[in-house]
Structures are given as structure tokens and as C-alpha cells.
Amino acid sequence: MWESALGGHHYHEKYMQHGKNYRNVMAKVEAGREYTSEEAIAFLKENKSAKFDESLEVHIRLGINAKKTDEMVRSTVVLPYGTGRAQRVAVVTSVKEKEAKEAGADLVGGEELINGIKSGKVAPGTAFDILLATPEMMPKLALVAKILGPKGMMPSPKSETVTPKIKETVEMLKKGKKASFKNDDTGNVHQIIGKLSFKNEDLLENYRTFRDALNKAKPETMKGKLIKSISICSTMGPSLKVKL
């Protein structure tokens, strides 16, 4: 799904896989046009075709060199109206177990939780969507770094997933308001900013908040513009190029 907003081959595949409704919507898209963010959101809301409440996705091509570690973009954003998706949150801690449970964390534990991840009994992405850790547990998490790292789930201070503020962070994540983002291997960033059922102005506010957070995350060593191009699409809808 992510690639559909960014590449011709994937875009063609998506077009061929979808039925009449999708092609009817595509016929309304003006070739080569760059939409304002307001226009793109309004178009996708007015032309939704799925029976479920689709997510609205932002895909941004960055001007970074993704092979340089000092140009990596990684941060968090608190969206005013949330993503519309509650996340399953696991917390690794030896000092804030009670606080994590009271805040609504789905999984809470110390070394036994780390051992569960190591043995495969607790599968990242299946048992939880995001992993938080209190600072004292970070050395012990090295045991499962090779499991969590490739999935983008290794707790990090940069993404505020290593934090003493467990209660506040868990509550934000469970409401779908707080989201972590980082560039992928090709230098793109992808973020869900809400559901099509949200009001236009709420989606627009979420979009602007995400843009601001991304700009603030620009690496100090990077020269030139951070954002090269932006596309907005819905889960089952077309990708619209957005004006910078």
C-alpha cells in the first residue's frame, strides 16, 4: 500500500487490482495536477469507495541520503485529533508496572517479557504494535535488538519510546494520538493522519501538525530541502500529489 503513492509500477498494479469503483474515481483525478492539502482531503472524502472507514495516509519523499545514519529522520508527533487507530502497547519496565497497567497497556513486564520476545512466545507486530521501555531496562533490551530492530520496534529516546513518563505516553498511544515516524530505506516517510469519517478541518489540522513535526525533525547535517514531494491517499483510494 505504501508504495502505491510513490512509484509507477506499484501504482499500475494497484490500478489493475481494483474494480470499477476505483477506476471511476481515478477518472476524476486530473493528470499532472498538484492539489492543495484541502482539495486532496475533500476529494478523497467525497470519492470514498470502500465499505469500511478508510484511513487517510500521507507519503513524503525526503531529500535525505537514507544510507547516512546522521541524516536519518526519526521523531514523534501528537496529532490533535488522533489517527483513529488505537495501538496495542507493550511496556518493559521494572519500576512502573502498576502505572503502565493503570494507563491501559496491553502487555507489561520486565525481564520475563524480554525473554518472551526472545523465545518467540511474544511476537512483535502480533502481540503488540509499539514497545515502550523505562530507561533502566535498555541494557537488557540488547538481547532482543536483532528481533525488534528490523521491525522498527526497538525503543529509542529519539522516538520517545524510552521514557519515564509511562502513564502519559501509554494513554496517548492508546487513544491513537501519539505516533512515531521515521524514514524507510528509500528515504520516504509514511504516516496515517486519521480516518475519512473525520471532519475535513480535523484531518487538515492533523496534516499540518505532522508537517510541522517532520520539519522540526530535519537532521542538522542535511543540506537542502527536507521535503521533495508529498502525496495523500486513502486506504483504497488514488494517490494525489500535494503542493508544497
Task: Enumerate the strands of the largest sheet in spatial order, edge to edge or round the barrel.
Answer: 7-1-8-9
Number of helices: 9
* Beta fraction: 15-25%
The CATH homologous superfamily name of the largest domain equals Ribosomal protein L1/L10, rRNA-binding domain
Class by alpha and beta content:
alpha/beta
The tally of strands reads 9
Q: Ends: how far apart?
A: 23 Å
Q: How many whole angstroms does the radius of gyration measure?
A: 19 Å
Low-confidence runs: 1-16
| Shape, per Cα inertia axes | globular
> Number of folding domains?
2
Summarize the SSE layout with pairings.
Layout: H1 8-17, H2 20-26, H3 37-46, E1 55-62, E2 74-78, E3 89-92, H4 97-103, E4 107-109, H5 111-119, E5 130-133, H6 138-141, H7 145-148, H8 166-174, E6 178-182, E7 188-195, H9 200-216, E8 227-234, E9 239-242
Parallel strand pairs: 3-4, 3-5
Antiparallel strand pairs: 1-7, 1-8, 2-6, 8-9
Helix pairs in contact: 3-9, 4-8
Provide keyphrases for this structure.
single chain, 244 residues, four-stranded antiparallel sheet, Rossmann fold, Ribulose 1,5 Bisphosphate Carboxylase/Oxygenase
